[in-house]
Amino acid sequence: MCLISHSNRGRSCVVRAELHQLISANSYAQYAVIDSIAVTLWRICFNWNRGSKMSSTDTEDIEMLSRVISFDEVVKTSIETFRNTFGAEPELAACAPGRVNLIGEHIDYNDGFVLPMALQLGTVIVGRRNGTDSTCDVVTCSDSIQEGTKRAQFDSSTIAKGSPKWLNYVKGVMFHFRQPVPGFDAVIHTNVPVGSGLSSSAALEVATLTFLEQLTGKPVPSMADGAKMCQRAEHTFANVPCGIMDQLIALGGRADHALLIDCRNLDTEPIPFDAPELAILICNSNVKHELSSSEYPVRRRQCQEALELMGLNSYRDATLEHLKALENANELLVRRARHVITEIERTKAAAEALKAKDFTKMGQLMTESHKSLSEDFDVSCYELDLLVEATVATRGVLGSRMTGGGFGGCTVTLVQRAALADVVKEMDTIYSRKTGGKYRARFYLAQPGNGARPIELGEYLR
User: Fold this and answer.
1) Which of 158, 386, 389, 413 pairs as cysteine with 281 (C-beta 3.0–4.6 A)?
2) How far apart are CA 390 and CA 106, in angstroms?
3) In 3-state terms, what secondary structure has residue 365?
4) pLDDT tens for each residue of 291-320
5) Residue 351 · residue 113 · CB < 8 Å
6) How many other β-carbons are positioned within 10 Å of the β-carbon of residue 59?
7) Chain-centre distance of CA 299, in angstroms?
8) Tens digit of pLDDT for each residue in 110-167?
């Protein structure tokens, strides 16, 4: 994901130097203050994918786009926190990205197809063995943590979920790793906005898995096995009955590609997404959700009930004709099933559109997806509908939809790069006015990134 800074200067190195003066290593709050100022921003990019090519449009001045802490700063802050907390240098590090789903929502747990891409922002874990058999001491640097302590100890031989909640994601992966884990000290940091629908939870789970593989020297057999392990962790330790998409894309993301995932057999197909004339715009509504206390589990039960009433074992065998079997059922079940059936078809069509570089068709399918999520699946909200409505009415927009679990979070928009500044300004103006100033949207440019991997700490420890 690319970043925009509040400046009109023409060199990212100048902006980077100024950022170091503006903020301390552990402060997100000052970023938020700076970000609230409506001034022109200059784009810099993450070092998430070192050596990846950059287009000439990286030097454009775009208004109103938001800045988040860079990947390098995430790593550096993690290392510095580790030194200050544990009095030693970390020896291991791992990272895993957030994701944005282009299309295919709430169908990963219904044997559907999904089409996400990994983001160039994510979660980092640095650490080392501490010489104990099983004592684990973990610190988070995230200012998004609102409950509990930011440091906690537990025993890897007797793992149980509890407080603080953020640690349950780590514990869950360790529990399902099914290998002895020696005692370790670790620091966790992230630049994935928590609660925004960009899968900060899966980024933490997959980063934990990648860290454990290094710590123990025991890699999981396959990407699918790793994804299932992290999914079980979220089911059992975070009480979220999520599908498999978020974990798979965090493991299997590829720069400059979206990833078509068949959620029935977990086959994946990287699909090139190379369109320099277009931009993928993420808009965070700043309406936050927590899926374990939302309607997410209800939707899953409704989908299963509808499937059983249609006499089918999988939605992959369902067509709109099968909805006739629900004519005497609750009308909600008809709408839930209709969304799943049509969203599966839309996602397959979207993959073909990307392959053919038919981005107009891709945008149309995205907008149709949002309508279905809002009207049939009831997982949108006033703020997300408002953002999509404002977006698709703006010149240069090919399509827009909510992304993630819903009930808040983000929209994703496919837009002509030449119209990007006008689109962002229009969305920001309408959203601020129609929400009465209660919410201020944040905007990010997304760029397909790589999946989870170890981090070479040498260059950071010099």
Assistant:
1) 413
2) 24
3) helix
4) 545 688 899 999 999 999 999 999 999 999
5) yes
6) 12
7) 20
8) 999 999 999 998 999 999 999 999 999 999 998 877 667 899 999 999 999 999 999 9
Instruction: Supply the DSSP string of 390-406, one letter for each residue.
Output: HHHTSTTEEEEEEESSS
The angle, 0 to 180 degrees and rounded to 10, between the axes of the packed helices 200-216 and 223-237 is 120
Query: 193: which DSSP letter?
Result: P
Find out whether 49 and 255 touch, Cβ atoms under 8 Å.
yes
Widest CA span in the chain? 69
Instruction: List residues with catalytic annotation.
Output: 246
What is the spatial distance between Cα 151 and Cα 205, in angstroms, rounded to a whole number?
17
The kind and range of the H/E element at 213 are: helix 200-216
184-190/135-140 β-pairing:
parallel
Residue with tokens 């044997």: 111
d(CA 269, CA 250): 14
Q: Within 10 Å of residue 78's Cβ, how many Cβ atoms?
A: 30
Cα–Cα distance measured from residue 84 to residue 76, given in angstroms and rounded to the nearest whole number: 12
CA 448, 454, 458: angle at the middle one, nearest 5? 115
Place of tokens 């715009």: 281
Give the pair of three-digit tokens for residue 197.
């629908």
Beta bridge partners of 126: 93, 187
In the numeric block, which tokens belong to residue 21? 């003066």
Strand spans (E) along 178-321 = 184-190, 257-262, 268-272, 278-284
Please tell me the total number of residues recorded for the chain in this structure.
462
Q: How confident is the model at residue 13 (pLDDT cuts 50, 70, 90)?
A: very low
Residue 224 sits at the vertex; the CA angle it makes with 46 and 118, to the nearest 5 degrees, is 20
In angstroms, the CA 457 to CA 462 distance is 9
Burial class of residue 289 (count of CB atoms within 10 Å of its CB; 0-12, 13-18, 19+): buried
Residues linked to residue 122 through DSSP beta bridges, in sequence order: 97
> Residues 44, 2: contact at Cβ < 8 Å?
yes
Q: How far apart are CA 102 and CA 88, in angstroms?
A: 42
